[in-house]
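User: My instructor asked us to take a sequence, write out its structure as tokens, and then describe one feature of it. I'm not sure where to start. Here is the sequence I was given:
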Amino acid sequence: MIHPAAVLSAVEFHREATARPSASIVVRRGDSLSEIAARYHIEWPGLYEANRAVIGADPSLITAGERLRIPSAADAAHLAASYRADAVAAVPVYPATGTVEPVAAQSAPAQSAPAQPAAAAGSFQQCVIARESGGNAQVTNGSGHYGLYQFSYSAWVAAGGSPAAFGDASAAEQNQVFATAYAEDGSSPWAPYDGC
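Assistant: Let's start with the prediction itself. The structure tokens for your sequence are:
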């Protein structure tokens, strides 16, 4: 049974976080957007959008000494929604081959992505990429989940990913591991969390 006082304190915390005015911080060595966002109880895509002019095109590259604006929780949620919409629109699907080219792979030398099952190559895969990594193939979150699809180490290995490549796999290898995981488990590893 949940104690009524616990519910009230959670509601008060949410109201407090939503009402908190925006602030600014200076990035410290070792900080990441996801860690900073977690400290302020906001979504990292919203934090990125609020600071895109400072950070640049790659949300995984922040530099010690940069001053970032911390938006309110409501502003961060609104900005995160626009970031995700842009990320989904930026991930092209190639119908002839049924492959998806992740956003991060577009700036790297051309790699041919392995063919995906037809069901995985459509909007579900695009949605997962947008919501999990924003198209950044090399991002690692604060809990150790990695890449385009934010695999945990154990899920990566279970789906055939090379243990040595975890944390440094190409977009093509990540697509292949996603295809294997999708063939084995369907959308269940992602859909409940991403709303895809």
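For the description part of your assignment, you could build on this observation: The chain has two domains: 21-85, 93-194. Try explaining in your own words what that tells you about the chain.
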